[in-house]
């Protein structure tokens, strides 16, 4: 191990660790990047990828561990220091001024006082030589997302980095733009530059990366050659193979059961340049069944959840129906009053207000549905009643906490998630929509939540679970649909579903979408 | 080369959260002592004149109540805004418009007398303040304008509008050309609480009642919960089904109405007519009161009394020591500065990062690295 600092590797990372409070975001990470390779960093959301690259780029300081650059131990204390070493980064979210031209934006980041005209000329030359045509005099505000990314890449290349870190670069690109990008990356590799390519799109990684490091829960779980792996084997490395004892009794005669949640031709334009449009999504969830929606993050799941929950209203009121009633025009409160309950992906700040007590957080989603029980005459909150109800939920879900009624932020992620799920289950909702029910939750709590969702469905409710965790979906779903690029496939009965089939749909490799021909740009 | 960085504390100290206003007050006193010393005045004498003498007699306590009433009324309204993360900086303008609306009755219908006059004036005052506050609320919800700027700019509009009114259409024809309206009739004057003891009027009672009501609203009612949720986590508020636009209007209308009530109470109580200037900056000082009171209506009562004292003390040092009464503004400014400073340090700690130091550490790392390798 000690012999390997002689320059074969451009970057070596040994035992890099970053701790936030009680969470070890990166736990003794080892990583080698050779000269002239494209190295993939794979992992689910929350696996520690972002924390790791922030440490490599100097925006976070590691608690312990070492970084070797060309065999020399270095400390990267700031992004400026990283640039000086020769590390460049292209962020997932761009930092460009829309009112300035491309060249002006580049000049701002170079900060070396060279005149705009010479920067523009250099940028133009560089952009054409790398097949990323760019007009330096165009206003950023007029450019497409793909063109904006080119500015970021050119800006990075102008500093002649040895290592280029790309964070989810294709998440904002069309397939054609992505192809162009891959050509550029291969060109850079042939020039001996190294690239750290962060992604969870397995097919891409297989296509362009020479080696891969897989992270899970902040730890390196493996190094591999992605070309020798299958998408499924890579996915298994990312997700892990923990087995939980969740019991799912088969349901009988589900075909004749009444649909409690109906989504009909749900379409939504992108609200921001980075959000995904929803394209003609249709889905029925019947009483007594759990439907799972699989998909790689950022394929429209968040937008879909907002639309179904009523945080965003629909023009077509019939595009979301709850218990046979049009709900597209109802707010989240209106939909809750129809019997629906929702658990969003983000716990702190979305599903719960961090600085408020659990009892107050109970009121958050139930002030209208349980108005009589929790709110008295004149709008006075019955603090005794909400306290008692929150204690009931804490008991039922086995929420571990340090104080009788702590602030939401004081709970661990898993325990808060149990409370948030329990808060909705306690209502016995007839429709339950959950986005990432066990994201970042430890195995025991996850099994508890999954079992509770199954039991809710078996008692006659319709349960819709959106998750990136395929194992979880296979465990609890009666049928699995896949969301890709804002479209939803037909639900596949669990008996017919395999990891491979679902994985292919997740990657968008095979059409298989019922409405695929209707796709619009 | 040194760099300062604010690092969020994992835990807020409950003790220091409670102590923070007192620490801020102590720091203000220290800075004030330096200020007085630089002005060539013995700080102890100055403090006695500034803080003790203005409240040493009963009638002076009444004056304190007169000054504190508008501050408390406005500040409790602002506390609701600020809890909702809505930044109404224009209470001064809403105060003035409340005064103008309420004064319309005694100025335009001086012959209208009776027990109905005063309640109607107060009501109109609240309507006026709320209506004026509705402008930045509308602009924010409709066009997403920054309410800090619009509400602040509307203060100057209100001040100039009042100035024009009392010099133009509403000027007292028998007033020898002075820019002021007629003196209000008896039924348009807010009665004094204890006429024998001092001038304090019902405005102070309004302030105390408003503070208690807002305290109940914020701590015990669903609406107050809505304010707190939307202010602290807007996304969770949306998930709860609370509307942000509705909240912007609620907070602006409520704080505007209370500022308007303060305005009409001031004019019909302490002043008795409209003049070009009816407020020594109550609307702005109330911002300090709100924060010094930790946005808690009961704390605001105490903070209102403290800030009222800075006004009285400013007047006192001017007459006794010949120091400009602008010193009151300086005290108010220092107080806000120290309050916000203390609050920041409760949430964050300061880390000094010396660049020279990091280089040394880097070198130490380089030295240590080979040893580590050997150890493996």
Provide an overview of this structure.
- The complex is a heterodimer of chains A (521) and B (376).
- Chain A is of the alpha/beta class.
- Chain A contains 17 helices and 21 strands.
- Chain A has 3 domains: 9-239, Rossmann fold; 268-339 and 431-515, P-loop containing nucleotide triphosphate hydrolases (Rossmann fold, 3-Layer(aba) Sandwich), CATH 3.40.50; 346-428, no CATH class.
- In chain A, 33% of the residues lie in helices and 23% in strands.
- In chain A, the strands form 4 sheets. In chain A, strands 13, 16, 17, 18, 19, 20 and 21 form a 7-stranded mixed sheet that branches. A 6-stranded mixed sheet of chain A has the order 6-7-8-3-9-10, with helices on both faces. A 4-stranded antiparallel sheet of chain A has the order 2-1-4-5, covered by helices on one side.
- In chain A, a hairpin with a 2-residue loop joins strand 9 (211-216) and strand 10.
- The longest helix of chain A has 16 residues, at 175-190.
- Chain B is mainly alpha-helical and 376 residues long.
- Classes of the chains: A alpha/beta (521), B mainly alpha (376).
- Chain A: Pfam families: ABC_tran.
- Chain A: It is a peripheral membrane protein.
- Chain A: InterPro entries: AAA+_ATPase, ABC_carbohydrate_import_ATPase, ABC_transporter-like_ATP-bd, ABC_transporter-like_CS, P-loop_NTPase.
């Amino acid at each position: 191990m000690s012999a390997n600092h002689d320059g074969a590797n451009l970057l070596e990372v040994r035992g890099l660790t970053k701790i936030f409070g009680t969470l070890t975001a990166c736990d003794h990470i080892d990583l080698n990047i050779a000269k002239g390779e494209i190295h993939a960093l794979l992992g689910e959301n929350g696996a520690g990828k972002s924390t790791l690259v922030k440490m490599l780029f100097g925006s976070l300081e590691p608690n312990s561990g070492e970084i070797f650059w060309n065999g020399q131990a270095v400390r990267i204390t700031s992004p400026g220091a990283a640039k000086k070493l020769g590390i460049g980064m292209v962020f997932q979210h761009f930092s460009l001024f829309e009112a300035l031209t491309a060249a002006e934006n580049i000049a701002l980041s170079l900060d070396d006082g060279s005149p705009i005209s010479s920067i523009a000329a250099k940028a133009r030359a560089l952009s054409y030589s790398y097949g990323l045509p760019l007009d330096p005099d165009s206003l950023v505000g007029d450019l497409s997302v793909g063109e904006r990314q080119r500015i970021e890449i050119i800006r990075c290349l102008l500093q002649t980095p040895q290592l280029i870190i790309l964070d989810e670069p294709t998440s904002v690109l069309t397939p054609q733009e992505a192809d162009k990008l891959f050509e550029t990356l291969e060109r850079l590799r042939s020039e001996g530059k190294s690239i750290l390519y962060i992604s969870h799109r397995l097919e891409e990684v297989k296509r362009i990366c020479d080696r891969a490091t897989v992270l899970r829960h902040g730890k390196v779980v493996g190094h591999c050659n992605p070309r020798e792996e299958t998408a499924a084997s890579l996915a298994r490395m990312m997700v892990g193979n923990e087995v939980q004892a969740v019991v799912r009794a088969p349901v009988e005669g589900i075909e004749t059961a009444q649909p409690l949640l109906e989504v009909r031709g749900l379409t939504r334009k992108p609200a921001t340049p980075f959000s995904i449009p929803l394209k003609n999504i249709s889905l029925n969830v019947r009483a007594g069944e759990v439907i799972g929606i699989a998909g790689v993050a950022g394929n429209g799941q968040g937008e879909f959840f907002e639309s179904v929950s009523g945080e965003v209203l629909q023009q077509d009121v019939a595009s979301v129906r709850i218990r046979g009633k049009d709900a597209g025009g109802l707010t989240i409160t209106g939909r809750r009053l129809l019997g629906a309950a929702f658990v969003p992906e983000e716990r702190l700040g979305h599903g719960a207000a961090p600085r408020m007590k659990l009892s107050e957080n109970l009121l958050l989603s139930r002030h209208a549905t349980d108005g009589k029980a929790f709110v008295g005459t004149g709008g006075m909150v019955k603090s005794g009643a909400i306290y008692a109800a929150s204690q009931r939920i804490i008991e039922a879900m086995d929420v571990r906490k340090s104080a009788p009624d702590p602030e939401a932020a004081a709970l661990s992620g898993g325990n808060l998630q149990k409370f948030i799920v329990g808060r909705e289950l306690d209502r016995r909702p007839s429709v339950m929509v959950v986005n990432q029910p066990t994201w970042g939750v430890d195995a025991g709590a996850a099994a508890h939540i999954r079992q509770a969702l199954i039991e809710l469905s078996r008692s006659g409710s319709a349960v819709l679970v959106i998750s990136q965790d395929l194992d979880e979906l296979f465990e609890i779903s009666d049928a699995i649909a896949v969301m890709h690029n804002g479209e939803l496939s037909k639900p596949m009965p669990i008996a017919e579903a395999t990891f491979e089939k679902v994985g292919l749909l997740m990657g968008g490799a095979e059409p298989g979408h019922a409405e695929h021909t209707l796709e619009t740009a | 080369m040194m760099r300062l960085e604010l690092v969020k504390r994992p835990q807020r100290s409950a003790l220091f959260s409670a102590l923070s206003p007192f620490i801020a007050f102590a720091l203000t006193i220290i800075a004030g002592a330096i200020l007085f010393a630089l002005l060539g005045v013995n700080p102890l004498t100055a403090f006695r004149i500034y803080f003790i003498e203005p409240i040493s007699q009963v009638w002076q306590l009444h004056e304190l109540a007169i000054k504190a009433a508008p501050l408390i009324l406005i500040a409790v309204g602002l506390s609701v805004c600020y809890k909702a993360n809505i930044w109404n900086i224009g209470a001064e303008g809403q105060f003035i418009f409340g005064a103008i609306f309420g004064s319309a009755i005694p100025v335009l219908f001086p012959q209208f007398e009776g027990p109905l006059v005063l309640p109607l004036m107060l009501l109109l005052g609240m309507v006026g303040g709320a209506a004026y506050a509705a402008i930045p609320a509308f602009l924010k919800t409709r066009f997403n304008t920054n309410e800090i700027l619009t509400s602040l700019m509307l203060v100057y509009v209100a001040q100039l509008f009042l100035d024009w009114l009392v010099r133009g259409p509403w000027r007292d024809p028998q007033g020898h050309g002075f820019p002021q309206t007629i003196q209000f009739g008896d039924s348009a004057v807010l009665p004094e609480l204890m006429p024998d003891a001092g001038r304090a009027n019902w405005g102070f009672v309004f302030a105390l009642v408003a503070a208690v009501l807002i305290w109940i609203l914020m701590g015990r009612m669903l609406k107050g919960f809505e304010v707190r949720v939307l202010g602290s986590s807007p996304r969770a508020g949306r998930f709860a089904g609370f509307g942000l636009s509705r909240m912007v209007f609620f907070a602006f209308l409520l704080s505007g109405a209370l500022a308007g009530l303060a305005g009409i109470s001031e004019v019909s109580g302490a002043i008795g007519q409209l003049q070009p200037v009816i407020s020594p900056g109550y609307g702005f000082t109330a911002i300090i009161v709100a924060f010094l009171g930790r946005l808690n209506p009961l704390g605001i009562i105490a903070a209102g009394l403290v800030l009222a004292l800075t006004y009285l003390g400013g007047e006192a040092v001017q007459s006794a020591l010949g120091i400009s009464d602008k010193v009151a503004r300086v005290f108010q400014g220092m107080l806000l500065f120290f309050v916000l400073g203390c609050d920041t340090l409760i949430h964050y700690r300061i880390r000094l990062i010396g660049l020279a130091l990091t280089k040394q550490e880097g070198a130490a790392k380089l030295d240590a690295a080979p040893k580590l390798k050997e150890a493996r």
